[in-house]
Amino acid sequence: MGDLGRMLKESWSLVEEHQDKVAGYFYARLFLSNPALRDLFPVHMDVQRSRLLDAVVRAVQTLEDPEKFDEYLRALGRDHRKFHVEPEHYEVVGGALIEAMRQYAGEQWSVEYDQAWADAYATIASKMLSGAEADTNPPYWYAEVVAHERRAKDIAVFTVQPMQPLEFRAGQYLSVECPRIQPRLWRTYSVANAPRRDNTLEFHVRAVGAGWVSSALVRRLEVGDMVRLAAPMGTMNLDRRSTRDTVFIAGGTGLAPIKSLLEELTRYNRTRWVHLFFGARNREDLYDLAELNRLAARYPWLSVVTSCSDDPTFPGEQGDISEVVARYGPWSEHDFFVSGSGPMVKATLKTLAELQVPSIRIKYDSFTDF
Ligand SMILES: Cc1cc2nc3c(=O)[nH]c(=O)nc-3n(C[C@H](O)[C@H](O)[C@H](O)COP(=O)(O)OP(=O)(O)OC[C@H]3O[C@@H](n4cnc5c(N)ncnc54)[C@H](O)[C@@H]3O)c2cc1C
Ligand code: HEM
């Protein structure tokens, strides 16, 4: 770790145990110095503390070498246009952040710490700003919900029709917000179809525990609602030049981006064998099985293996999908795509490492932190 990185970590450790107070001070400072900024943030900041402070602190500390994260930061800056963030806001946020830390660090805070945070923040902000400036897309697209189907207690599949064309690549995800139900709360969801001529996009959403947005999208979204969509992101794409057979491994609604890639393959694939492993806790959560079986019947190159980890009478495989994959194979010459919750992705990557699959052949999207 370089000097700058050490200094950032050292100084954060001075305030870390007062995180809530730092956050309180940061937002108070931010909204006092620029009251109009309050409108950019979620309504219930008291209940769901805004994600901004955590995100900035994490970014400043982990992106020690911003050059390495150039594309990520440019994309983050482009994405911030959906929040109505303007260039002049960056300075206000940076200033409030440093002031909040200074306030709670006490006497141990130093001018060097001040400078370290200011420098790191400025480098990151300038990359985000240049990404935002170079973007020719609208900051977001409006789209109308044209179909909404509950496929399981906690799972819905819905389709939206964007008002203007929205280009994306199979396997990508984008942020979604529903102004009627949860204004200014954006969450990322994978598009579950390959690009279509009619521009519609399908999403597979699972309501998780105390989650704010997903449960609203599953239980309260209706046909006719308008949602906003931000620019597509993500690099879990198919390499058309690859001639390798392919293994898709999906847990729950992690099926969404896999389905998108599969749909793309149905348009041109003649030569690659494709194995899809789809796992869930119980059979109800294998919410798209009918469609997968239909695809497998139509495309001889596709095989589908299903598994339940918590449904002892399920007639398919039993166990976590990460373990089930290892019962098949050999997999040494395949391309892999993995998608699902953090623990599911982590367990699957571990299995693949044990099977000696080179990491360069694996692409994955994790829905939550590991
Ligand atoms: C690249 C990417 C693509 C994604 N694609 C999809 C998709 O296609 N379909 C889909 O359903 N979701 C997808 N997600 C997850 C989605 O963005 C949300 O994080 C998730 O649905 C929870 O949002 P929420 O507003 O309901 O919960 P939040 O309000 O964000 O979280 C509330 C609480 O629930 C916890 N929590 C969040 N997620 C989970 C979880 N999965 N299991 C258990 N606890 C959780 C949080 O830690 C928090 O304590 C994707 C995430 C990423 C990063
Ligand atoms: C170094 C500069 C910054 C970094 C690294 C950064 C990073 C992030 C990240 C990673 C998120 C979470 C994204 C998500 O959940 O979709 C976020 C959310 C957000 N950011 Fe930034 N950001 C920066 C500057 C700013 C500025 C200047 C503003 C303007 C006020 C801003 C406003 C927001 C808002 C409104 C949210 C959503 C908050 C929420 O949902 O609770 N950000 N930021």
From TrEMBL:
Named cofactor requirement(s): FAD; heme b
Enzyme nomenclature, EC number: 1.14.12.17
Pfam families noted in UniProt: FAD_binding_6, Globin, NAD_binding_1
Reactions catalysed according to its record: 2 nitric oxide + NADPH + 2 O2 = 2 nitrate + NADP(+) + H(+); 2 nitric oxide + NADH + 2 O2 = 2 nitrate + NAD(+) + H(+)
Keyword check for Metal-binding: yes
Domain FAD-binding FR-type: 138-239
UniProt xrefs under Gene3D superfamilies: Globins, Nucleotide-binding domain of ferredoxin-NADP reductase (FNR) module, Translation factors
A GO molecular-function annotation: nitric oxide dioxygenase NAD(P)H activity
Keywords: 2Fe-2S, Heme, Iron, Iron-sulfur, Metal-binding, NAD, NADP, Oxygen transport, Transport
Domain Globin: 1-133
Domain of life: Bacteria
Similarity comment: Belongs to the globin family.
Protein's name according to its UniProt entry: nitric oxide dioxygenase
Organism: Paractinoplanes abujensis
